[in-house]
Design a protein that fits this description.
The protein is α+β, with helices and mostly antiparallel strands. Helices cover 47% and strands 17% of the residues. The strands form 6 sheets. Strands 7, 8, 9, 10, 11, 12 and 13 form a 7-stranded mixed sheet that branches. Strands 4-15-18 form a 3-stranded antiparallel sheet. The protein has a 3-stranded mixed sheet with strand order 5-14-6. It holds the Pfam family Cpn60_TCP1.
């Protein structure tokens, strides 16, 4: 009898070989089914309630994937590619997951029949290279120097990104707004310089774009209402100082032996505060913003001198104000001079809905802007914000990479045709595998049809015929339940979305196919640490 060799801890779960791979593929399928129906203009939304009971309604693939608490190790790769697509391009998150799932689904029969995963991976990589080259050849380049054309193109790309979102009725309104907001940024196009503030109430069309900075009125003390609420040609002091009385006695220990001396301490405190305030006043600033609280004495003092102040301004808003209006955030009042003051053409406090907002407009180096969103429900506003984020990312990408392809399943059909034709020129197993990849690419137009309730087979047949005749931009036309030349219809997407989506999907496919064994360690100590038996105190047994 050979002694049994135990390598792994008891309770370790190991599964390997073909069944393991197939079960991983099946796990990925079920994730794809979760986001499958959100694709396209007729996509449905998902309502996800987390463990704290917060409900999120979303159509954005990456948001849904983040909120689903997925524990299956292989399926997590799909969540990762959705996140990476969201970070890199911003849109196309559902498509990535869908493509990866469909690649696996089409390749599953080959795995079951015993084709070695390495051969499959090689074919997937080959197909990916062919696709990327083809996209680069097909992509339509735009001339940047023609400003009007370039702007029209950006608006079309933004509108295509907003097509599949909740706010697609107002896509013309929002795509203009998004393009305006991105074009105000500087060449690096930093995302955090576009602030999005949400105010419930009002209609979506009341949303507005402030070229400059806007933030909610902060907590205010007595005397605040006496301050002027609007200035022209204003100087702004940005501080990181607490202008309150209590600060001094907390910082030092003072021993006094009679009342007169205590009075001196109190007077000194007031004096210190008044000195600070006088210095700020002398600097010529009319608007004072501070990250720390500005107390009631200070508020009153500023009001008497026709100055506006806001304390406890959130840091990101202070930073954006600094970027827009110039100046520096000071931590002392000693050397406030014109050099460190910001300036803007017009400052006002305006009522928007139930909130009051401080607006800084006409900033000298305004490379920042704020979008103020209005709408009924809070979840709706959050979804609008997510949709705008996608559109903003798309416009940024299009400005950087200036080539576009037609959306609506057109480019996928063209790639599918190209792969199918290419596969017939290869002898060997790769022919079948690349053929399967070609079939998998058709999932995007098919899903667009399914989500809109069209007859997918019928429309796909028409599309295949058109593409075979050389009409390369034909895709699904959701409005007419037919097919149309989507390039003419201005359903445009930056080619970088498609390249990124295909690359990420192929990488995920290869990764899942190359796993042939999963080893799960048991939870340490069976979850809970064993409790010591009840004793008579001191842990002694009865």
């Amino acid at each position: 009898m050979q002694p049994q060799i135990i390598l792994l801890k008891e309770g370790t779960d190991t599964s390997q070989g073909k069944p393991q791979l197939v079960s991983n593929i099946n796990a990925c399928q079920s994730i794809v089914d979760a986001v499958r129906t959100t694709l396209g203009p007729r996509g449905m939304d998902k309502l996800i309630v987390d463990n704290k009971g917060k409900a999120t309604i979303s159509n954005d693939g990456a948001t849904i994937m983040k909120l689903l608490d997925i524990v299956h190790p292989a399926a997590k790769t799909l969540v990762d590619i959705a996140k990476s697509q969201d970070a890199e391009v911003g849109d196309g998150t559902t498509s990535v997951v869908l493509l990866a799932g469909e690649f696996l689904k089409q390749l599953k029969p080959f795995v079951e029949e015993g084709v070695h995963p390495r051969i499959i991976i090689k074919a997937v990589r080959k197909a990916l290279n062919l696709c990327v080259t083809q996209i680069n050849e097909l992509a339509f380049k735009i001339e940047k120097h023609d400003n009007e054309k370039h702007r029209a193109l950006l608006e079309k790309c933004a509108a295509t990104a907003l097509n599949s979102k909740l706010i697609h009725q107002q896509k013309d309104f929002f795509s203009k707004m998004v393009v305006d907001s991105v074009t105000t940024l500087d060449t690096l196009l930093p995302l955090n310089m576009i602030g999005i503030k949400k105010v419930t109430g009002g209609a979506l069309e009341d949303s507005m774009l402030v070229e400059g900075v806007a933030f909610k009125k902060t907590f205010a003390y007595a005397g605040f209402e006496m301050q002027p609420k609007s200035y022209d040609g204003v100087k702004i002091a940005l501080l990181n100082i607490e202008l309150e009385l209590k600060a001094e006695r907390d910082n030092a220990e003072v021993r006094v032996d009679n009342v007169a001396e205590y009075q001196k301490v109190v007077d000194a405190e007031w004096q210190i505060l008044y000195d600070k305030l006088a210095k700020i006043h002398q600097s010529g600033a009319q608007v004072v913003l501070s990250k720390l609280p500005i107390g009631d004495v200070a508020t009153q003092y500023f009001a008497d001198r026709d100055m506006f102040c806001a304390g406890r301004v959130p840091e990101e808003d202070l930073k954006r104000t600094q970027k827009a209006c110039g100046g520096a955030v000071m931590t002392t009042v000693q050397d406030i001079s014109d050099k460190v003051l910001g300036s803007c053409a017009h400052f006002e406090e305006r009522q928007i809905g139930s909130e009051r907002f401080n607006l800084f407009q006409g900033c000298p180096n305004a490379k920042t802007c704020t979008i103020i969103l209005r709408g009924g429900a809070e979840q709706f506003l959050e979804e609008t914000e997510r949709s705008l984020h996608d559109a903003i990312m798309i416009v940024r990408r299009t400005i950087r990479n200036d080539s576009v392809v037609a959306g609506g399943g057109a480019i996928e059909m063209e790639l599918s045709k190209m792969l199918r034709n290419h596969s017939r020129t290869i002898a060997g197993k790769e022919q079948l595998l690349i053929g399967a990849m070609a079939k998998a690419l058709e999932v995007i137009p098919r899903q667009l049809c399914d989500n809109a309730g069209f007859d997918a087979t019928n429309i796909l047949n028409k599309l295949r015929q058109k593409h075979a005749q050389g009409c390369q931009w034909y895709g699904v036309d959701i409005m007419k339940e037919h097919i149309a030349d989507n390039f003419e219809a201005f359903v445009w997407e930056p080619s970088v979305i498609k390249i990124n989506a295909l690359t990420a999907a192929c990488e995920a496919t290869c990764m899942i196919l190359s796993v042939d064994e999963t080893i799960k360690s048991p939870k340490s100590g069976g979850g809970e640490a064993p409790q010591p038996p009840m004793g008579r105190g001191m842990g002694r047994p009865f």
